[in-house]
Design a protein that fits this description.
The structure holds two protein chains of two kinds.
Chain A: H1 14-23, H2 31-36, E1 86-92, H3 98-108, E2 111-117, H4 120-129, E3 136-137, H5 141-149, H6 163-167, H7 170-173, E4 187-199, H8 205-211, E5 225-228, H9 231-241, H10 252-269, E6 272-274, H11 277-284, E7 289-293, H12 294-299, E8 313-316, E9 324-330, H13 339-349, H14 352-363, H15 374-379, H16 396-399, E10 401-402, H17 408-422
Parallel strand pairs in A: 1-2, 1-3, 5-6, 5-7, 9-10
Antiparallel strand pairs in A: 4-7, 4-8, 4-9
Chain B: H1 5-9, H2 35-56, E1 59-60, E2 67-68, H3 79-89, H4 93-126, H5 132-140, H6 147-157, H7 163-170, H8 182-207, H9 210-218, H10 223-234, H11 236-252, H12 255-260, H13 268-276, H14 282-313
Antiparallel strand pairs in B: 1-2
Helix pairs in contact in B: 2-14, 3-14, 4-8, 4-11, 4-13, 8-11, 9-10, 11-14, 13-14
The chains are: A alpha/beta, B mainly alpha.
């Protein structure tokens, strides 16, 4: 922030009020927030920040209804000197390879301060409250528009990220992703599909392909079913299974049916809701089948006990490509203290060598690089031959279904269904 | 008191020194000793509790739907609290099932803690002799390892191919899926909290005057009768203290169930935990906390009442 004092608003506008009052959720209100609370919190005032206010007024981004995000400020100038000292990275746990981070530290003579969040709600809350100061943040795509509306992100200077046009799939450059046309605020970090991971020592590929999502209900895997403890992915996959080809559905009946399917899976087939089921417990043998992000199963080979052959891991994704697909992003918060260094960081992870190493040797989640050839991933041993369907290609993004932001009312529908699952039957 | 000792000695300046009982410390001297305690309570109890109230009676921001606490009581809205409360009274199973489970699990776990803990405390206080302190140290030793780490260890022990099932296999028992069963959660709670039961019980049992027990035997009571008529009544405050100390935190426990249970064993703490983590449900989480506080107040008040009676009787 110190780089651009002239950009700081002199008076508290609505955005600042929002930003400060979020902080109150975890800390006591600052004096400014108390002063700012001249109107009852939560009621949106029409003056101030401008643009659309509140939820619902904003168009929810969808692949067939892409959005161009408004510019909240100017990007930093290209001639900004690179800051030294510390770069604060706020990320999911274990989502970046330490070796690549050290390479970045060495190249720029800085240190990377690494802070993690467990879920998006926690990440957003600590970022908005100022509890965590971040130069680089990793939001899911459904939060991007809201972060921009709250004035929490800064636009990217494209001249400082030459690796984006050079190395990344054209679809992410021009016109750019549907949630951020022209990639004004985001670069893609990883891409993934959501499918079904299974043990090939229990079931052959042909059987798995024939059954698909029905595997979760197969008595062969009774008490050995893992399903994601994540409401959008959990209900979203059951919607597809029921033929509702919209993972953002606002149809109460469809959501109710998806909920009932999950309850049946739990009560009749002993399914358990987990986060580590696919990448850790399936290779260890506790589960025979697991809902799985492609990156989880690609990375699962590191969890195989000694003596277990690698070819026990299998992954099913609808062969017609009509499954769940998505990507994560990297952004620079507006309050970043080292915005120029942050741009270098983004560029570094889009570097063909370092970005690839981060994926291949550590996290299993693929970056959308044009240089990555699916067949070569398998022949190079990055992806096991039995998991070739876990490789994500550019086409997946046109055939697959993407989970976008939900309106407050729709989200409440989803959460109600989810709470019922959580409460047990 | 020796009130005129000073007057006898006299002083060169002719003034009479004040004797001890007349020394004035000022009106606020003694009450000021409570200041650290008041500060402590204010900072670590009253303020956080006020924040919980402000969240429960507050709102959510329209953008991220994160809780937006309202600190001005005149703007408090009881809407969320009322709907949350009505979900209990209207019999919504989403709320009642976890509540019922919590009552049953906590009741069972406390009872098991009491039975096992009493035996251990009784043995340690009466028969352990010079090993007494070693046993106590051993009882506390699990605290050297974080509770989460220990539960993770249990997770692995309880796996289908873990050591527990291996051991049972020797007796021809087929592997059991332990994780996700009510019994596993109850035993997990017992495991986590039983030291808190043993320590207060030991404190009370250890203080029982041996002469009273001997008197009981001298007057012809059998050892069982002595236990029932002398030891048990004298250890009642310890039993109550232990039950309160173990059951109160169990009511809010959610991580034991997160690690050893499943959705079919989810407890009240899990309701709060998931509401905290979900967009738009912050005020609901706050309301659930308030309802729980009222619920656990009942055993707490009973405990306070019965200990006061005890002190009055003594």
């Amino acid at each position: 922030m110190s780089a651009h004092p002239r950009r700081r608003p002199s008076a508290l506008n609505r955005r600042d009020f929002l930003r400060k009052s979020f902080g109150a959720a975890v800390a006591l209100p600052s004096a400014a927030a108390i002063l700012a609370a001249c109107s009852k919190p939560g009621t949106t005032s029409s003056g101030g920040g401008g643009g659309t206010t509140g939820n619902g007024a904003r168009v929810l981004a969808r692949p067939d209804d892409p959005v161009t995000l408004p510019m909240t400020q100017d990007p930093i100038p290209t001639d900004t000197p690179i800051e030294g000292g510390t770069l604060n990275v706020y990320n999911w746990d274990a989502y970046m390879y330490k070796k690549v981070l050290s390479a970045f530290e060495d190249e720029f003579g800085v240190s990377v301060q690494w802070t993690t969040f467990n879920n998006m709600e926690e990440g957003i809350q600590k970022l908005t409250s100022g509890q965590v100061e971040a130069d680089v943040f990793f939001p899911t795509t459904d939060y991007v528009a809201r972060l921009v509306e709250a004035g929490l992100l800064q636009p990217l200077n494209h001249e400082l990220i030459p690796n984006m046009p050079a190395n990344v799939w054209p679809v992410f450059n021009d016109p750019g992703p549907y949630y951020d046309l022209g990639w004004r605020y985001t670069i893609p970090y990883t891409i993934y599909t959501t499918g079904v991971a299974y043990r090939r020592d229990r079931l052959d590929d042909a059987d798995a392909a024939a059954k698909g999502y029905e595997l979760f209900f197969d008595s062969l895997f009774k008490d050995e079913v893992s399903y994601y403890d994540s409401y959008r992915d959990a209900l979203g996959m059951m919607l597809l299974r029921d033929g509702v080809m919209d993972p953002n559905s606002d149809d109460p009946a469809a959501i109710g049916k998806a909920k009932d399917a999950i309850l049946e899976m739990i009560n009749a087939n002993g399914a358990r809701l987990t986060i580590n089921g696919a990448y850790a417990k399936l290779p260890e043998g506790e589960f025979g089948i697991a809902q799985s992000w492609s990156g989880d199963i690609v990375g699962a080979k590191y969890y195989l006990p000694k003596g277990t052959p690698e070819d026990v891991l299998g992954y099913w994704y609808p062969p017609d490509g009509k499954g769940l697909v998505g990507n994560d992003t990297i952004v620079i918060p507006s309050g970043a203290k080292s915005p120029r260094l942050a741009h270098e960081f983004l560029n570094f992870f889009l570097d063909e060598h370092w970005g690839y190493l981060n994926f291949a040797d550590w996290n299993g989640y693929q970056p959308p690089f044009t240089s990555i050839v699916p067949d070569k991933l398998v022949s190079d041993g990055v992806v096991l031959p039995t998991l070739s369907s876990a490789v994500v290609n550019e086409k997946s993004f046109t055939t697959g279904y993407i989970q976008g932001e939900l309106s407050a009312d729709t989200d409440a529908l989803w959460l109600d269904a989810w709470n019922e699952i959580q409460a047990g039957g | 008191m020796a009130s005129d000792a000073g007057a006898v000695t006299g002083r060169p300046d002719g003034k009479t020194p004040k004797n001890r009982s007349e020394i004035s410390y000022g009106r606020w001297y003694w009450p000021s000793f409570t200041f650290p305690g008041i500060l402590w309570l204010a900072a670590l109890f009253i303020l956080p509790f006020y924040v919980v109230l402000s969240v429960a009676f507050g709102t959510v921001d329209p953008l991220f739907r994160l809780p937006l606490p309202v600190y001005q009581p005149w703007w408090w809205s009881v809407d969320t609290f009322r709907t949350t409360f009505e979900k209990f009274t209207s019999g919504s199973h989403i709320y009642l099932d976890p509540l019922t489970r919590t009552l049953v699990y906590v009741g069972l776990a406390s009872l098991i803690c009491l039975v096992l803990g009493y035996a251990v405390a009784y043995y340690t206080a009466r028969y352990a002799g010079r090993w007494k302190w070693l046993i106590l140290v051993l009882l506390i030793s699990p605290f050297w390892i974080s509770y989460l780490m220990r539960i993770y260890a249990w997770q692995s022990l309880l796996q289908p191919d873990g050591y527990i099932n291996d051991a049972l296999g020797v007796f021809g028992v087929a592997p059991i899926i332990w994780v996700g069963r009510p019994i596993t959660v109850v035993l997990g709670l017992v495991y986590g909290y039983i030291p808190f039961m043993i320590l207060p019980l030991f404190g009370f049992l250890d203080r029982i005057d041996q002469n009273l027990l001997e008197a009981g035997r001298d007057l012809g009571a059998s050892s069982y009768q002595t236990f029932r008529r002398v030891t048990l009544p004298l250890s009642k405050p310890g039993i109550l203290a232990g039950l309160v100390i173990v059951s109160l935190p169990m009511f809010g426990d959610y991580y034991t169930n997160n690690l050893l249970g499943s959705t079919n064993t989810s407890m009240y703490g899990n309701l709060i935990d998931s509401a905290v983590g979900q967009a738009g449900q912050g005020p609901e989480a706050g309301s659930l906390v308030l309802i729980l506080i009222v619920l656990v107040m009942i055993p707490m008040l009973y405990y306070l009442r019965s200990t006061r009676r005890q002190t009055e009787a003594a």
